[in-house]
Amino acid sequence: MTTRGRIGSMIRDKYRVDTFVATGSMANVYAATHRNGSRVALKVMHRELASDPQMRERFKREGYFANSIGHRGVVRAIDDDVTDDGCPFLVMELLEGEDVESRRKRLGGRIPLGDVLGIADGVLDVLAAAHAKDVLHRDLKPENVFLTREGEVKLLDFGVARWNDGKDSSDVTGVGMVLGTPAFMPPEQALGRREEVDARSDLWALGATLFTMITGEPVHAGGSAKSKLIATARTPARKLRDVAPNVPRAVASVIDRALEFERHDRWDDAKAMREALRWARMSLDHEAEVLTSSVPDLAIAPSVPTRRAPTDDELTVMRDFSKSDEVYTSAPPITLRDVPAASAAVSSDGPTFVLRQRPAPAPADEPAPETERFAPRQTTPGPGPVLDLPPLVDEGPISSEELPLEYTRPMAKIPPGFAGTLPLAGAPAPAPPVSAPPPPAPVPPLSRPPPGSLVAQVAPRSSGAARFLVPLVLVVML
């Protein structure tokens, strides 16, 4: 039966062939509907290959390899059987989307680098799972990488796969047969050295696939499949940046290492290559973020000197000692660069002081500000000097424009001869005067014991023997 002739037919009275999907080196793929209504894909082997027992065995093993991996990126085989005309077929899950080769051609021959890195990450994840189960794909190429509508990456066609046991027991390829696609075949596979084919061979094929996706060209230039096969077996792969200079070095170095001619120079496994590509992708994302992001200007506060220069405006204490009869007071030294508006007017129960920076000199035609002084009232002298100040009058808040920095509301004048006894504002309090110590109290003279005392009673003055008993009595008393 021809390829198109199967459309509309029933296979094994269970599957109705709906449409033709694609064709490959070993089979045709159709979309079919099971009698229970589920949609599946039928992969029917070519009639000319179905007569070869080895090829039939290889075809059936594809489903076994795929199911043994157990990864979402591998298409599962649901069933296998033989058509009425003797062609083996596999029942697999039906995919909706397109393969990488179709997308590359649709986009003009090249795929954007960001999409390539995303696809490579998905394929490497599938290869890591397959290699962990000792399954080698051996036919990795753009046609066997499928992109679903949901954005998933699927690895197709394990028909050339074999177990990675280092032996030929699992390889049903005959002597002298070379299976695969020359443009994506690693050197050891092109030379027919099947015992040398391992996981690093799949990484070479993936590197060649990425090379073509980025540049739109095969790794080895050439027209026919035979010339490409010879070039692969004898010549190292071209460097990626030699063909596409705009590719970042971080990405090119990862792909170039996967395409090394000698296996020991390539990545050790799929996990190592996937990790390297992820780091390269992160570096590209960071560079793109730095270049495309707009950084707003930050408001930086002006630097404030830690030491005051001689020209800085500052609040000072004004004390005029040249005039003996006047004393002006103000607050201690304060440095204020910005005086809040709230401090311009202050009202309290006590004296009101207004602090502000020294203003610019007034014009010549403007009179200087004057202050009013209060004369002290005479009082009767008391035991000490007393300064009688006038009662405070609340005149309301005084704005910073009414008085300059050097002046405040003055205090009353001090009587002559009395200024030296008052402490100045901000000066330490004087020590109290030191007075002469009082004279010591007189010491009363010693007197004889009165009559009838203990000594007089024990030792009368007329008794001679008693003179020796007096010290003894005193010692005993002590």
Description:
- A hairpin with a 4-residue loop joins β9 and β10.
- Residues 167-176, 290-356 and 453-460 have low confidence and may be disordered.
- With 478 residues, the protein is an alpha+beta fold.
- The protein has helices spanning 47-50, 53-69, 100-106, 113-132, 187-190, 199-215, 225-234, 240-243, 249-258, 270-292, 454-458, 466-477, and strands at residues 10-11, 15-23, 27-34, 39-45, 77-82, 88-93, 97-99, 135-136, 145-148, 153-155, 162-163.
- Strands 1-2-3-4-6-5 form a six-stranded antiparallel sheet.
- α4 (113-132) packs antiparallel against α6 (199-215) and α4 (113-132) packs antiparallel against α10 (270-292).
Give a topology summary.
Blueprint: E1 10-11, E2 15-23, E3 27-34, E4 39-45, H1 47-50, H2 53-69, E5 77-82, E6 88-93, E7 97-99, H3 100-106, H4 113-132, E8 135-136, E9 145-148, E10 153-155, E11 162-163, H5 187-190, H6 199-215, H7 225-234, H8 240-243, H9 249-258, H10 270-292, H11 454-458, H12 466-477
Antiparallel strand pairs: 1-2, 2-3, 3-4, 4-6, 5-6, 7-9, 8-11, 9-10
Helix pairs in contact: 4-6, 4-10, 6-9, 9-10
